[in-house]
Amino acid sequence: IYGQAIKWADTETVFREAGRLMSWLDDKHISASFVRNLLYYSIMYNKYIKEEKTDYLRFIPLMTYDIVRNLPPVDHKVERKRLVRLWADKLKDIDDENTILNYLTTIASYVLMGKSNE
Question: What are the backbone dihedrals phi and psi of residue 31, each rounded to the nearest 5 degrees, phi first?
């Protein structure tokens, strides 16, 4: 999907997370430009995984800056906004078990394509 192979066992997670992002986008908790940035960071992450060049790890400070600048703080009084921030903060963990980060290219592309068709 969108040039990325997805394990069958992970498809439910991918579409659940895409739905979550779409919901936050509809509710204006995140912007389309933030989702486009997530797509950019996921491409850098995938290049790091494939090429093993540490230059691509610069997506971590870029994404961290973007999250801090554009999302509400973790202690925000509105729970839904806190959840957005906590979700985004988990993306910075580059271990192999981070299914969301591994499929973020597909998730972000799906959300952006879905919004462009409205």
Answer: -110, 165
H-assigned helices in the chain: 11-26, 32-51, 59-70, 79-90, 99-102, 104-116
| Cα gap 8→79, rounded to integer Å | 32
Between CA 38 and CA 67 the distance in angstroms is: 10
Measure CA of the first residue to CA of the last residue in the chain; give whole Å.
Answer: 20
- Residue 61 is predicted with a pLDDT of 95
For 118, the token pair is: 């409205």
Residue 1 to residue 55: CA distance in whole angstroms: 26
Note the pTM of the prediction, 2 decimals. 0.89
Residue spans of the chain under pLDDT 70: 96, 116-118
How far apart are alpha carbons 78 and 40 in whole angstroms? 28
